[in-house]
Amino acid sequence: MAKIIHKDNQENVYIFLTLIVLSIITFRQITIIERKRKEITAALMEPYDPNIL
Q1: Distance between CA 45 and CA 49 in Å, rounded?
Q2: Whole-prediction pTM
Q3: Number of other CB atoms surrounding residue 19 within 10 Å
Q4: What distance lies between CA 21 and its chain's CA centroid?
Q5: What is the DSSP string of the chain?
Q6: d(CA 16, CA 8)
Q7: How far apart are CA 15 and CA 11, in angstroms?
Q8: What is the per-residue pLDDT across 8-37, written as a single tens digit (0 to 9) for each?
């Protein structure tokens, strides 16, 4: 019985580590998308007078 519990705990550790890795990848993708969005917004706002806004 102890081996089964140990195996389940090991699988839980693998699932937890996988979730951490996926979270890091997702966070990095979001930051890249936000950076590109800010660049595009700045490029679109460039020809306009900032005093209008």
Answers
A1: 8
A2: 0.60
A3: 10
A4: 10
A5: -HHHHHHHHHHHHHHHHHHHHHHHHHHHHHHHHHHHHHHHHHHHHTTS-TTT-
A6: 12
A7: 6
A8: 678 888 999 999 999 999 999 999 999 999
